[in-house]
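Please, structure for the following, as tokens.
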Amino acid sequence: MAQLVRDLVTPLHPFFSPGRARLRLGVNTAHYDDAAAELEAFARPLWGLAPLGEDLDPWREGLANGTDPGHPEYWGDIADVDQRLVETAALGFALALAPDLLWDGLSGAQRDRVATWLSQALARSGVDNNWQFFPVLVSLGLRRVGVPFDEPSVEARLDRLESFALGRGWYSDGPTAQRDYYVPFAMHYYGLIYAGLSKNARAERFRARAGEFALDFRHWFAADGAAVPFGRSMTYRHAQAAFWGALAFAEVDALPWGETKGYLLRHLRWWDGRDVATRDGVLTIGYAYPQPLLAEQYNAPGSPYWAMKAFLPLALPDHHPFWTTPETPAPMPDGVVHQPEAGTAVIRSHEGRHVVVLSAAQHNTWARGGAAKYAKFAYSTVFGFSVPAGSHGLDQGAFDNTLALSDDGVHWRCCEVPESAGDLHLRWSPWDDVEIETWLIPGAADHLRVHRVASARRLFTAEAAFAVNRDTETARDSGAGYAWATSDQGLSRIEDVTESAWPTGVRREGEVVQPHPGTNVLVPRTILPTLRGEHDPGEFWLTGRVTGSPGR
């Protein structure tokens, strides 16, 4: 792990500004200004470097200059909702873990400027979600270096953060429908840092919730270490498993240490060899390869370095049981686990080699591509998910694992804002005069989708299974009521079925669609088994079974 941190950080050094306060990694197309983007690239490597405890001289120099209003590389004042506020968390964290390397070498005047600049964070409102943790982490750093701060304001933020707890260890990311990786790599991660550096009743509550959450979150990882791609911020990559290291940092032994260690290390190994960096070694925007379509509007060139959150265990001593206990495989059997707090069910199959999350309650209309990232019916460790390149035709839409509808056969809509109507039961309306109910029924290695559609207009429908790598395609077929394709990834199949518990569905015609390149998060070129139908106004039912089997 230590070497991986070095391998990720060393390529950044040629991109330092002269005063070391900024890292200029490329053109910034995020919604925030260039100074904030260059601060982001400077700050995020500290999530790994501070636990490692080495190579921090350039960051100490940059910290002094970036917080100096008289320096040309000054980061700027912090506003209420500001990317600078986000990055103060990494700086506070680093001061808390490595004050000898970042603080002790500063002059008295430099320390005063650093403290003044960071203290702005405690007076800023921030967004009402995991952002409330950023001033908390700043307070941990200020406390470690002996700088006073307004403790009641920090306690109020912590109270608000705890109000987002949903039960069984789950949080919402603020008053939203999101139950994504911001639960483990933000809400729990920051809470566990607080717990590891504090001794009070709140710290114990953070530990207890994390212990409960671990029992659910472990199901999101396949036997090879792959995590289910789901939700926004997939470009943070390794951070998907950061929770496991944070458990160790806060001394939460909810699982045997060998099991906790295994989830993190297998995930880090899963990233080995994947095309996640430029020729210079700088991390790219994307997931398993550079993928601009995946970017959210808050992704600047330095954003992917939240991946460094995965290396928190490097702060632990060599004799800690996380290091001394041998890694062990995940012990979970295949089967279905319902997670009602998230509105999901997790299907493990093929001896844990394939994990599918069925989702029926989450949505995000703010993030670019939010419908694809949250409101599809199924997300897979083997086949990933796809984001749209447009809405003109099925090839642009890349509508894997959703039901797309059109009233002209050209422009398509899918589920964007599901309304939960029960366990894996949702309602949604792509037009005011079209109402849809969908039920998702998990099976041992597949799942059933049942849709009741009531429409005042004539509709075209297209429902697809998992997207398959077409560069290694081995076979495909389609016909009345079915479509399937196979590649080195495995088999993806969708078929109309008759189920005695449901009304007879409309028979559809199978087709294998070829989406635009760069839409799927795991492979750049795919094909997509799809069922298509044409429907007169009125009520009709669609009932299909979707199968995804990993290759050997």
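The chain has two domains: 1-324, 335-550. The radius of gyration is 24 Å.
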